[in-house]
Amino acid sequence: MENFKNEKMEIQSFLEDLTTKHSDGSVVERDEISKSIEEFDLENFLEKIVSLGFVIHGSSKFFETAKPHPAKDDNSVPENEHYAIYATDLPAIAIYMSIVSNDKIHEQKKSIHWGAGVIRHANGNRIPVFSADQDLSDVMDDGYLYLFKKENFSPVTPNQMEEQFVSHESLKPVLIIKTKPSDFKYSVQPLK
User: In sequence order, what DSSP letters do the residues of 133-171 get, joined into one string?
Assistant: First the structure.
């Protein structure tokens, strides 16, 4: 337990240093973090950040201030009908959302249906799952993760979509981290 407390304090201190250094809204390059953390893994690092009271918005687009907008949803899922900033406490989902480039999809005049979901186990574990109706490798690109304080967000549907949060206000992220397709470690299941 003491080890976890020390690690949490170290991560919190490291995060404070990063936010001070990048308070001008500049992007944190992944290498800047990996140089400071042994055996760096972006998803594991973000899980520790989330445990400190943060949520993450992943996007292929850069912005200094996040503004509410409609979710990109081809299936008209009620949870995605908010005009809001969407964020998650599952880093893998945010990474996925950051590296699939809707601009590349439109440039290539493709019609791709893709998304993320969660399998919930009785023990409380949540496993992210990813799907697409075709190969995404040619529409993946560098992206951005936007870290926000969780206190500025509310759950989309309490007790149902626990990994999805919304804010109806424009917000400046606490930190912006650049991502690469290689940060995504999961397989994408084909949609049928």
Answer: SS--GGGB--EEEEEEEGGG-EESSTTTSTTEEEESS-B
